[in-house]
Every structure is written in structure tokens, then in C-alpha cells.
Task: structure prediction
Amino acid sequence: MRFRDALARPGLQAIAEFKRRSPSAGELRPTGDPGETAAGYEAAGAAAMSILVDELFAGTLDDLRAARAAATLPLLGKGFFTTEAQLDDLKDAGADAALLILRDLDDRAAARLLEHAGRIGLDTLVEAHDLPELERALRLRAPVVGLNARDLSTFRIDRATQLQLVARARRGDGDVHLHHPPLIVAESGITSTAQGAAAELAGADAILVGSALMRAPDPAAQLREILRRPLIKVCGLTREEDVAVAAEAGADMAGFILAQETPRRAPAVLPVPETMLSVAVHVGEVTDDRADLVQLYAREDGHRARDGVLLRENEPVARVLDRPWQQEDPEHLERAGAADGRVMLAGGLSAENVAAAIEAVHPWAVDASSSLESEPGIKDHEKVRRYVEAARC
Result:
């Protein structure tokens, strides 16, 4: 399968990286085996693998050859490439794609290398770090555009700006009209399931994960964790100590109900760790959008509607499908399983039934609130832990 085709498959895809060291992190995996790592990544569900072949990262073309001998997934050669001969060497070593960094290439050089790569059957990942570089990539009609959260001059990570660029590239707004929108890859700074999901919801087709995998005792297991679905949401949080327990248990999203009519109303959107996304839950209208996401329900006959929508910057990104309150609905799981797009499954989920619900529906996320309480608005910490553990199994 070609590199671009692998990234174009449904759902969030991952490019898993191998590097022995980096200028920003120092030594990472100096004795790492690229072949063994490639086989592990392939088994863990990576769409592609990136391999640093530059001496600055203690890499060589032999690392690429070793990975090619051990796995069949597409391989991205990464380095600071400026000549056609370097692309030829990558192709000969078994690469399926090459990284082109716009910071190091003017438009004429980038266009020349893109043309040569196409001629020899090598896909490309054209990397941008800011809006001017993104617009250059779009004008160059790059088929795959990487948006790097790391400033290569300072090594500082700015994920907020990266997500803004991902969303802008997906919308295609600005000065460039997109007849053939590129695939979008969010690069760097992704260490958790929630951070990968944030890139996905902003519009990324894939994420590139490097240092987080190289630091992990088992890189393939860490990749599985970052790609894990469904995401797990604990809702109805009103206290910081309950947020902390949900995070410690491994929940990916923290929900704060801001509707007036509920005893689970939170005082505000409380702080969450970087491993979680905050979700503000509203009924009727949005009164506070200072969360990562908004979960919005219509108001019907003075009450919250049954189903809702998950919003990112006012754009729908998932459907929330809920069972009716205080009654059984034997068709709930069947209805949810037949729904198109991302589905957050809610309504009466607990440690006792969430695994069966996941098996029946395969949702993008699951959401529980009242079943995890000792009293309205107060979480039972043991129930939270058991629910998260059951949802992760």
C-alpha cells in the first residue's frame, strides 16, 4: 500500500517513528532495533512508520533497510533533504515516502523535489510550521501536509497553534482555493489518547508520534494506547478531586454540566491535565465555551433533548446518542450502532454494562455520569475506577 493511501483510510491513522536520539530530547533509544520496532508498530496498527536517517538523530539508511526487511507497512524517510540524489537513495533503501521541510526549501526547490519524487514513485510529506508555510504547501498542491507543533529553532511545542493550523488546512480557508484538499498530519507533541483525538477532531487524518513512543518501555503498546477507542468520558464532575481521580483512572474526557436545571451543575469548567479534554455540557444555548469541546443538547418542552452533538469551535464533530431517562430502550444500542460518523454513547453506562455496549456499538467514545456517583454531583471514586477499567478492556 502506498504511504498516502494508508493515511487516507477511515479513522485516525498513525505514523509511528523510530529515532535513537533528537536534538530536543537527547538520547532516546540508542540501542533500539529498527526492524523489531517496525514489526511491533505494524502489529499495533500503525498506518506507516517514519525513520530518521540523519546523523543528527543517530540514524542511517541502514535503519530504513532493516525496517523494510522486517515489515510491509509504508516507510517515511525523515531527514533534511534538498537534492534529488537524496530522494533516490531513500527510494533505493526501501522508503515509500520522503519528508520535505519547507523551512529549508524555497518554493522552486520544493516543487523540483516534489516532481522528482513523483517521477520515481516516492510519496512525500511536506512539513509546515506556521501559516505562511501552510499556505506555501497548499499552493504547491502537496498531497500530504504535515503540521509540526515543534518550532525547529527553539524546540518549543505549541499544540494550540498546531490545532488551529490543522483546522484551517481542513477548511481550506485563506488565500488558497483547494480543488484537491491534502491529507493532514499532526506532528509532534502527542503523548496521549486525548491529544491524538484533539488532532483528529481539528481535522487531522493522521498523527505522527515519535518521542512518546521512543521513551516508552514498549513502543508498540504505547502506540496502541494512543490509538485506543473508544475514548472514555466521565461527566457530571463538580469537584477538582473528582477530576483528579478520573484522570488517574485513565479517562480521556472530563465533562462539566453548565445547564441550570441539574444538581450536577459545575461551578465552572475546571482545570484538567494535558492527558484529558474538557467538555462543557449545555442545554439550549452555549453560555461558556472555555472548554476544549462543547456537548450541546436542544431544549424540548422545558427539558433536555434525548440526543446531542459534540462541537469543536462551533463545528459538529460527533453525535451523542443517549437512552431516555429512567426507562429502558431495547433499540438504543442497535440505533447507535447504525449511526454514521463518530458516536459518543451515553445513558446509564457503568462498569457493569459498558463493555457489552462497546462490543455492540463500537462507539468513538463512551460517557457516564450519574451511575458513577455517591450522590448527585459527587463521584464515588471506586465506581469511576471500575467504569474506566471496564471501558478500557
Residues 3-227 form a domain with the TIM Barrel fold (CATH 3.20.20.70). The two ends are 31 Å apart (CA to CA).
